[in-house]
């Protein structure tokens, strides 16, 4: 696909005017945002600052820069950006074209709202506010899906670069049954997706063994918090610092009027988290007759969980909880021997 098309006037002589194909105007915006000194082109430093994604190395970015710089000027302009990316758009050609149409439609709607809202009736104003809210919700949902895809693809590339070596606990966990469940979670359109039951009933449907283990952990955590018992080992066991897995318990009290929005956000969060490297398992329970959810997250170790907290999908979930929750969430963490996990899965 050619990025640029010549527009012929009615006369037979060709025109020098160039018109961008639909959907390609995004690259004008990209160059404008990346061009720090406003000279109309990108130096390698400007290119690297904008296009660096934490996955490509500096050498790979340099190679990409010179590939795009077909004019060999040590700078990249809009034509070169369009020419390169237009060859690799595939299905995203339609996506960019749709985004361009969406942008124009939203601007027109905003302009009409600005002119007509004051003179509208109360019911008409309600409809306008409702449509604005639902449009925003749809865009946020789409953004969450895209952020999840970004995180997943970046993580897959990192794994490919690091090689096939994986921690022992994770390699033991990836049995056939577990792999099938993870694939189901990642397929948000599948009618067999177990997370769909969360949206409908608020209770995550897991196998019996997991339910038993989660209930036992819940009782143990409650008793520890109330200081009713004191645990002392019968025999002292010397273990390595990395021979534990991390269990995170999150208690979330949700506003009744925000339940449906919260369930949607929680489903998207769990989809992304389950695909994250180092996530062993996630389960959620809703207390009967209450709008309180208890989320259990099992991670290979503490550092993996801390990295997870910095991901876009985790931050999006945290931001949403500001509006969804009646009170701030309570987070409790616990380290347990990795051997317990191995024994439980054998």
Automatic annotation (TrEMBL):
<keyword id="KW-0963">Cytoplasm</keyword>
<dbReference type="GO" id="GO:0005737">
    <property type="term" value="C:cytoplasm"/>
</dbReference>
<comment type="subunit">
    <text>Interacts with STX1. May interact with CPNE6.</text>
</comment>
<keyword id="KW-0479">Metal-binding</keyword>
<keyword id="KW-0175">Coiled coil</keyword>
<feature type="domain" description="EF-hand">
    <location>
        <begin position="22"/>
        <end position="57"/>
    </location>
</feature>
<keyword id="KW-0677">Repeat</keyword>
<dbReference type="InterPro" id="IPR007138">
    <property type="entry name" value="ABM_dom"/>
</dbReference>
<dbReference type="InterPro" id="IPR018247">
    <property type="entry name" value="EF_Hand_1_Ca_BS"/>
</dbReference>
<dbReference type="InterPro" id="IPR039862">
    <property type="entry name" value="NECAB1/2/3"/>
</dbReference>
<feature type="coiled-coil region">
    <location>
        <begin position="217"/>
        <end position="265"/>
    </location>
</feature>
<feature type="domain" description="ABM">
    <location>
        <begin position="246"/>
        <end position="334"/>
    </location>
</feature>
<dbReference type="GO" id="GO:0005509">
    <property type="term" value="F:calcium ion binding"/>
</dbReference>
<dbReference type="Pfam" id="PF13202">
    <property type="entry name" value="EF-hand_5"/>
</dbReference>
<protein>
    <recommendedName>
        <fullName>N-terminal EF-hand calcium-binding protein 1</fullName>
    </recommendedName>
</protein>
<keyword id="KW-0106">Calcium</keyword>
<dbReference type="InterPro" id="IPR011008">
    <property type="entry name" value="Dimeric_a/b-barrel"/>
</dbReference>
<dbReference type="InterPro" id="IPR011992">
    <property type="entry name" value="EF-hand-dom_pair"/>
</dbReference>
<dbReference type="GO" id="GO:0042984">
    <property type="term" value="P:regulation of amyloid precursor protein biosynthetic process"/>
</dbReference>
<dbReference type="InterPro" id="IPR002048">
    <property type="entry name" value="EF_hand_dom"/>
</dbReference>
<keyword id="KW-0597">Phosphoprotein</keyword>
<dbReference type="Pfam" id="PF03992">
    <property type="entry name" value="ABM"/>
</dbReference>
């Amino acid at each position: 696909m050619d990025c640029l098309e010549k527009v012929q006037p009615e006369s037979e002589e060709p025109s020098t005017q160039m018109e961008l194909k639909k959907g390609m105007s995004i690259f004008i915006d990209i160059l404008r945002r990346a061009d720090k000194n406003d000279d109309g082109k990108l130096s390698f430093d400007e290119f690297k600052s904008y296009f660096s994604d934490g996955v490509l190395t500096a050498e790979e970015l340099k190679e990409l820069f010179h590939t795009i710089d077909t004019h060999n000027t040590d700078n990249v302009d809009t034509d070169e950006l369009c020419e390169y990316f237009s060859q690799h758009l595939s299905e995203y050609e339609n996506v960019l074209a749709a985004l361009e149409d969406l942008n124009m439609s939203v601007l027109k709607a905003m302009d009409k709202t600005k002119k007509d809202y004051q003179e509208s009736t109360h019911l008409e104003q309600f409809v306008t506010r409702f449509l604005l809210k639902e449009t925003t919700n749809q865009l946020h949902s789409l953004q969450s899906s895209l952020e999840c895809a970004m995180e997943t693809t970046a993580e897959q590339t990192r794994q490919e670069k690091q090689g096939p070596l994986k921690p022992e606990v994770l390699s033991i966990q990836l049995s056939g049954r577990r792999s099938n469940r993870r694939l189901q979670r990642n397929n948000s359109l599948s009618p067999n997706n177990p997370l769909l039951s969360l949206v409908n009933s608020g209770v995550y449907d897991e196998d019996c063994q997991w339910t038993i283990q989660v209930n036992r952990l819940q009782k143990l955590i409650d008793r520890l918090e109330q200081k009713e018992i004191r645990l002392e080992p019968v025999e002292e066991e010397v273990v390595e610092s990395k021979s534990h897995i991390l269990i995170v318990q999150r208690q979330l009290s949700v506003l009744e009027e925000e339940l449906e929005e919260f369930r949607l956000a929680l489903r998207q969060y769990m989809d992304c988290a389950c695909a994250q490297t180092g996530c062993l398992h996630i389960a959620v329970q809703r207390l009967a007759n209450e709008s309180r959810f208890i989320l259990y997250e099992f991670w290979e170790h503490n550092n993996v969980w801390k990295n997870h907290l910095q991901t876009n999908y985790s931050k999006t979930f945290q931001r949403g909880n500001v509006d969804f929750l009646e009170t701030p969430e309570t987070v409790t963490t616990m380290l347990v021997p990795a051997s317990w996990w191995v024994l439980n899965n054998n």
